[in-house]
Design brief:
Shape: elongated
Distance between the termini: 49 Å
Strand content: 15-25%
Strand order of the largest sheet: 1-2-3-4-5-6
Radius of gyration: 19 Å
Number of helices: 9
Structural class: alpha/beta
Length: 220
């Protein structure tokens, strides 16, 4: 198994190192993010896969269809696409700025169409739970079920103001929705209050991005 992290600034050197490995011995390749579809190198990699590769897994934000995926599936390679799903609708657009929900949906349905054609394509969702997304978890779960796609999640720790452990208007409101989820209920809004810190962080992000948190969140 070989893993490559495309979020670093050394993608080219990583790719060179990859080709130094005995290609015939690589049977599983895992491409992590950043966003692989934005890498100038990943297309080259997908067009020159190891000859005995059996499994290819790629993280993606679903802004673009993975390059060459049709021909990869035709080679009888199992492809696992892990799609980041951080909210539904406006929450998604705020948390995953500057991505647009309609574009995400369009690309997702192209993956679903490919899944109907090939049982070698597996799609799953990954959600990062933060102050932005924890209150929308119910919608995320329902959306994943409606698409017949498995969902897993992890808890964000950095940047610290967005950690779900702190008490603030977003996490307190979310906690009320999690009464039936014992594990998450214990974690959410379980630490000191950070409302001022979170508000300052959000204001800075809105200024940088040209967004407005009030379009998505009730701070009262």
């Amino acid at each position: 198994i070989y893993q490559c992290d495309w979020s670093s600034d050394v993608c080219s050197s990583d790719l060179d190192k990859f080709y130094e490995f005995p290609q015939e011995r690589i049977i599983e390749l895992d491409i992590n993010g950043g966003e692989p579809s934005n890498s100038p190198n990943y297309k080259d990699l997908l067009e020159n896969l190891p000859p005995n590769l059996k499994i290819l897994r790629i993280n993606t934000n679903c802004s673009k269809l993975i390059h060459n995926i049709d021909s990869i599936l035709e080679k009888k390679i199992k492809v696992i696409v892990t799609i980041s799903l951080d909210g539904v609708g406006k929450i998604f657009e705020y948390a995953r700025y500057p991505l647009k929900w309609y574009n995400f949906n369009n690309v997702l349905h192209r993956y679903l169409a490919l899944r109907k054609k090939s049982n070698l394509l597996e799609i799953n969702f990954w959600t990062t739970l933060s102050a932005y997304t924890i209150g929308d978890l119910g919608n995320i779960i329902n959306f994943a079920k409606s698409m017949d796609i498995g969902l897993s999640y992890g808890i964000l720790h950095e940047p610290d103001p967005l950690n779900i452990k702190y008490k603030n208007p977003l996490t307190i409101a979310a906690k009320e929705k999690l009464i039936n989820d014992e594990n998450l209920y214990k974690l959410v809004a379980s630490d000191v209050e950070n409302s001022d810190t979170l508000y300052t962080y959000i204001m800075l992000q809105d200024k940088i991005r040209g967004t407005n948190y009030e379009d998505c969140y009730n701070w009262s």
